[in-house]
Write a structure and sequence with these properties.
single chain; alpha/beta; Aminopeptidase i, Domain 2; 2 domains; five-stranded mixed β-sheet; 10 helices; binds zinc ion
Amino acid sequence: MAIREAACDLINYINRSPSPYHAVAEAIQILKKVGYQRLDETADWNLAPGGMYYLTRNASTLIAFALGEKFTPGNGCQLIGAHTDSPCLRVKQRSKHASVGYGLVKCECYGGGIWATWFDRDLKLAGKVIVRGKDNKLTSRLAHIDRPILHVPTLAIHLDRSVNEAFKFNKEEQLIPVLRMVEKELEGEKKVTGVEKQQQPFTKHHDSKLIGLLSDHLGCQGDDIVGFDLCLADSMPAGLAGLDEEFLMAPRQDNLVNAWAGTEALAKHSPAGSSTAAVLCLYDHEEVGSQSAHGAGTQLTNLVLERICGNNTGLLAKCISKSFLLSADQVHAVHPNYVSKHEANFQPAINGGVTMKHNSNQRYATTAMGAAQLRELARRNEIPLQEVMVRNDSPCGSTIGPIISAKTALRTVDLGCPQLSMHSIREMGGAKDPYHAVSLYKAFYEQFAAIDAETCDENCDGASTFI
Ligand SMILES: [Zn+2]
């Protein structure tokens, strides 16, 4: 895969993935093309060596795995974890709102976004809609209204001369996107309050034209819509930029870069000749702490590993002790205008490759041995690998690595691609790093078991040697 081809594939993935649900659906498309089969969690699994499988939770979390052709239960796994969610505005469960002739859509702030960047953007809408069918069955449908229908206007500088010193706004009252002009029709509606309001059907709590747009899009009746989880997103497509097109300008690079690179690496990995399992875990809810049934704090990872090991506690423990997790999430590249914010010995460069994260306070789960082994993997494959630590006087982010490793006892390295403007509506990354990431993650799936067996002695971080 050429460097530019990788960047373009990622751009397509990001453009088609404005919500966690779409990120999972697109990853499934990539995996299905190479033969991955869906597993039903409610049924028995008849897993076969050489088999390639996936399952989802809430349609926003995906676990996929390929069992090596020589895999037997109790052997180890190489896991890559990433997340599918990003900070965004989400339509409130009751969103109808009108003000001085405008119809607006009340939204909830999801995660720690730089909300100022959501002003004066042409916003689109995407996510999951729950539709009731004729047989009363509830179906989860994906919706992607791929055109600018919403906009949060700023207040003119003439009405706020202090705006360039401090752009302040109230997230409840001033971050409400405009949908349309309503010519007083919504405002003129009979005011329904109290118990009567509580008992109104779901659709009555939203602008009728918004419901009409969704039902037309999905080919259902408006009244069939009985629930949704809808994200707002910038309608401007992702693309390459910079004088030599060395930059990737795209929303949600945190963390669709790694969700995509992990999926590509798994799709390109062949279970032929392997005696271990390659596992990909794409979790929802990282941006709000990962503590949910389908966040990285879920038991789902353990449950899946248990089933890979045949529900045998002894075999699961053996498997875990031989396994290794790459927790892949984006990294702050050194910022040209804020160099002093970065530890002088660690200044991750855009296009300098995947960056390994260290923090002895366990904001990242990388260990000394894991780091040494990963350096060896990168060295053998001539793949660039950068490293980062934060300044002692700087706050440090965290990610899914410490959460999963605490929950599962997996040896873990935290890493990711460097980028700027993290959590802005539009982020800035490198056009070459997606290629570097796929190369490293594929090498991890294919070679890490051998490197682990070769480099670990019997005291290797408490884990026995690989098989
Ligand atoms: Zn992230």
